[in-house]
Amino acid sequence: MARRGHRKPRRKDGGFQQLPPRVVRNPFDPVRVLNSEQVEKIHHASMTLLETMGMDFLDDDARETLRRAGAQVESGGNRVRMDRGMVLEAIAKAPSQFTLTPRNPARQVTIGGDNVVFCSVASAPNCSDLDGGRRVGNYRDFNNFLKLTQSINIIHVLGGYPVEPVDLPAETRHLDCYYSALTLMDKVWHPYALGTRRCADAVHMLSIATGRSPDQLRRQPGLFTVINTSSPMQIDAPMLQGLKELALAGQAIAVTPFTFSGAMSPVTLAGSLAQQNAEALATIAYAQIIAPGVPCIYGGFTSNVDMKSGSPAFGTPEYARATIAGGQLARRYRLPYRSSNANTANALGIQAGYESMMSLWAAVMSGANLVMHGAGWLESGLVASFEKMIIDTELLQMMAEFLAPIQVDENTLALDAILEAGPGGHFFGTAHTLERYQTAFYQPIISDWRNFESWQDSGAMTAAEKANAVYKVILDAYQPPALDPGIDEELKAFVERRRGEIQRMA
Amino acid sequence: MARRGHRKPRRKDGGFQQLPPRVVRNPFDPVRVLNSEQVEKIHHASMTLLETMGMDFLDDDARETLRRAGAQVESGGNRVRMDRGMVLEAIAKAPSQFTLTPRNPARQVTIGGDNVVFCSVASAPNCSDLDGGRRVGNYRDFNNFLKLTQSINIIHVLGGYPVEPVDLPAETRHLDCYYSALTLMDKVWHPYALGTRRCADAVHMLSIATGRSPDQLRRQPGLFTVINTSSPMQIDAPMLQGLKELALAGQAIAVTPFTFSGAMSPVTLAGSLAQQNAEALATIAYAQIIAPGVPCIYGGFTSNVDMKSGSPAFGTPEYARATIAGGQLARRYRLPYRSSNANTANALGIQAGYESMMSLWAAVMSGANLVMHGAGWLESGLVASFEKMIIDTELLQMMAEFLAPIQVDENTLALDAILEAGPGGHFFGTAHTLERYQTAFYQPIISDWRNFESWQDSGAMTAAEKANAVYKVILDAYQPPALDPGIDEELKAFVERRRGEIQRMA
Fold first, then answer.
1. Rounded to an integer, what distance in angstroms lies between the CA atom of residue B350 and that of residue B258?
2. Which of A121, A426, B58, B276 could in theory staple to A376 by disulfide, Cβ–Cβ 3.0 to 4.6 A?
3. What is the spatial distance between Cα A393 and Cα A149, in angstroms, rounded to a whole number?
4. Per-residue pLDDT for A8 more than 80?
């Protein structure tokens, strides 16, 4: 929550008035781009892939676990074949809805059903703002993104490292990042599934911060991680080890195949969706075999590549169709669904606006429960932008207001007001308007609704310039959420102990 | 159709490769923001308004017609009250789907059902491009917009005057505009319902251009007009007279109330929708009483005003909800539905992108059949932008591709290709990719998918700069559609005869 005006009076321009915290629920029946027969064909193709070709699991322990569970494992190789009975039986153990409870229980989120949870940008190597330009990620910017994520109500969850803090040593970086996530914020956060120890550290630190025992954390998880397959049909060892550690700790697993049509998956959408489905379900099945009932999320990220460069493009028509098809597949297996607010734009121009909206509408219309990269994503994820985070806050708020139900009753039908205004009259002065006008409509934080002349006369500020001012106002007013000093001590001690251990091992 | 490369070789940058002409059909069940009970409450409220308060029809002849049809007309006043039986009986005569056939029958459009027809920007007083800046409308710019509308396949229909050519005398302007619409284009167009004679001239010129008799034109209409009510609950004389002339000639009538919540309608959405419904249905009822069975379209344009300035804002959450509710109301009466691609932005920046997409997605998800202002609208309609027309062409093409069905069969499921690539492999070189990659994905005309460095190195061109180059390429390659010289002569002669008559009357 922004503590606007706490330290200094509110600025005239660039002030920040946001929507109060809210649970966003999607009232719409999800849109369908596939008929039932097409969904079944894709299902069948993906099961056939897992049965006949199989998938490479690049971790001995994972293969052994799968072999014991009934999979056919290639001797001396990485290939694992699972029949559909085994896969479907395993994934049926995943809950269709679950909650994640961070150290502040008021920030709990429910994933599944008609809930829509928005995450911050994650995993960008670079960040940018108008002042400092485009730069490699660092811990200062990392922390600033966390402060914004904490302060902006419509961002429910930290979706990962907003930007990689490469100025910190790679081996101990996670400790500093987790410490920031647990002290600068009190929302749900996301450690990376990069091997066992980093994930164990995350769970340990969550346990310190929440006072919940490992057993309690299993019953009341507070973290999620994204497991990306190395498409096509492969998953690497660090991911599998991280997955195992977090699954055994009862934390949530969002599995997202990297199926970029034309490069990492077939050039046809149906083929890419079949492959996405095979990779997602095989990985979720593995999680359920290790830890039956662990919360899992079906991730859809299928898009097309630019055939000129081979790079993925986002917010494209193919991306939007795949997003909606992915929602249908997730629902077929009664799994919560993850999508994104993605775009390929290099600048905060009109392309960033229309591509982001293409992605966001597709996500919402697909019935997505978790919208990754909800605020701050630019350049296909290569940049976390401070200004884009604020502009996306506008987009997410607009979407949340769009999803709010329309009240239809005698008061809102307002026949008396229409009578009072009368034919050819106006409503500015009616009692009905005066009672409601201050809160009747969504008030934008970025959109400029003044006419051209007023806008020109006041300096023709761009959305990016406005967002730049807003993000600084928020940082300026930021105050860390309350934390028991004893817990803070304990977290610090853990970080330093583990840092020492890791440094000695190196 | 763009005749790219007809006159000169294609430019390397700023070239224009567009989707071939296509009928856009919407495969989705329309989204619903109101439940059935809420729809009925709004229906009931709107009928109550027409029965008890009534609506002002500012034309003697219209009131007399309505009186004879059973309405209660205030003696010596403009007020008309109609009971719901009368209204519903009249509007039931309107077809739920119809076609408009311009002088080139290949450009025919069907309005209703699952068809989506995109129109050019209409009715802006100003226009702009990067070269000339923002300027008052003129005939040269008017004609250039018509040439673009003709050349761009995804713009199916000329939605009105893209910009008002104020350098032409107001009284005879329509003759020059119609002549342009019939010679620079062969698509469906839109004369304004501004009195009887202008509309009679439009029908007469269409008759010359198509060789269809008035009787044939009634059976095979080729024009549509938008009737705006003067909200609240009023309709002026020129609109009523133009409506009558066009309705008697069998041409299509799109009725769009100007219900801007907080100013011209109640500050609550339910009240604005009730008023929108009352105004739209009363006007459509009038059209059906004059000309039973004449094609009519239910228009939804309800949005909120900026309570600071009183000006309407577009692409807002309230606008999107009203758009979808409007579609539900139109379907309740089995009428085709009109929406828009609207925004309030002053510049071709990110706000124009996200507001336009908010409007366009809401339109498509609402099941809109006619999307007015599809390409070129800026500043709440105060500016027709040449660059925005090209950028919107991208948006409309993206939407059309998004709406195309996904093929799911053995070839597209591509199990062989996945086998060929194999776990950890890639698809660039598979036979399946090589056979399809050139046409597999939507190719953008504006979106820049290059990475940041390539984009920077090539000059960091903005979308607006790119669009500027594209629109000139299109104009450069433009050639007028074929027209029999005898018909052209006859059109010219008619224009000059009527110009003389009007000048002598003045």
1. 27
2. A121
3. 10
4. no
Cα–Cα distance measured from residue B198 to residue B174, given in angstroms and rounded to the nearest whole number = 7
Please give the pLDDT value at position A15.
61
What letter would DSSP give residue B105? G
Q: How confident is the model at residue B506 (pLDDT cuts 50, 70, 90)?
A: confident
Chain B residue at shortest CA distance from A77:
B423
For residue B339, the cross-strand partners are B371
Task: Name every chain A residue with its beta carbon within 8 A of the beta carbon of B455.
Answer: 346
Q: What is the 8-class DSSP label of residue A274?
A: H
Mean pLDDT over B349-360 rounds to 98
By C-alpha distance, which of A244, A227, A324, A325 is closest to A281? A227
* Residue B182 Cα distances to A45, B143, B245, angstroms: 53, 11, 20
Contacts of A349 in chain B (CB under 8 A): 348-350, 353, 462-464
**Chain B residues closer than 8 Å to A427 by CB:** 232, 262-267
Q: What is the pLDDT of chain A when averaged over all its residues?
A: 95
Contacts with B28 from chain A: Cβ below 8 Å: 31-33
Integer Cα distance of B266 and A428 in angstroms: 9
Q: Distance between CA B17 and CA B444 in Å, rounded?
A: 9
Give the CA angle between residues A333, A339, A344 to the nearest 5°. Answer: 145
Tell me whether residues A351 and B42 touch, CB distance under 8 A.
no
Paired tokens of A290:
């290790």
> Judging by beta carbons within 10 Å of its beta carbon (0-12, 13-18, 19+), is residue A125 exposed, middle or buried?
middle
- Helical packing angle, A237-248 and A196-210, nearest 10°: 30
- The answer to whether residues B318 and B29 touch, using CB atoms and an 8 Å cutoff, is no
Q: Which two tokens stand for residue A12?
A: 């005239």
Distance CA A349, CA B352 (A): 9
Radius of gyration over every alpha carbon of chain B, rounded to an integer in angstroms: 24
DSSP state of A104: S
CB B73 within 8 A of CB B80: yes
What amino acid is encoded at A127 in this protein? C
Residue A294: name the closest of A215, A371, A199, A219 by CA. A219
Q: What is the 3-state secondary structure (H, E, C) of A15-72?
A: CCCCCCCCCEECCCCCCCCCCHHHHHHHHHHHHHHHHHHCEEECCHHHHHHHHHCCCE
Q: Among A357, A454, A353, which Cα is nearest to B352's?
A: A353
Residues 6+ apart with CB under 8 A from A366: A30, A31, A300, A323, A324, A326, A327, A328, A337, A339
CA distance to A224, A243, B178, B497, per residue, from A296 (Å): 9, 11, 61, 76
Q: What is the DSSP string of B346-397?
A: SSSBHHHHHHHHHHHHHHHHTT-SEEEEEESEEGGGTEEEHHHHHHHHHHHH
Q: What is the pLDDT of residues B79-98, one digit of tens each?
A: 999 999 999 999 999 999 99
Query: Rounded to 5 degrees, what are φ and ψ at B301?
Result: -140, 10
The Cα–Cα gap between A99 and A109 comes to: 6
Close Cβ partners of B136 (under 8 Å, ≥ 6 residues apart): B125, B126, B166
Strand partners, A370: A117, A338
Judged by CB atoms closer than 8 Å, whether chains meet at A318 and B419 is answered as no
Residue A99: partners with Cβ closer than 8 Å, 6 or more residues away: A108, A109, A110, A111, A220
Tens of pLDDT, residue by residue over B387-430, are 999 999 999 999 999 999 999 999 999 999 999 999 999 999 99
* pTM across the whole model: 0.96
Nearest chain B residue to A320 by CA: give it.
Answer: B402
Closest CB to A357 among B261, B354, B407: B354
Task: Give the integer Cα–Cα distance in Å for B430 and A101.
Answer: 46
Q: ipTM value of the model?
A: 0.96
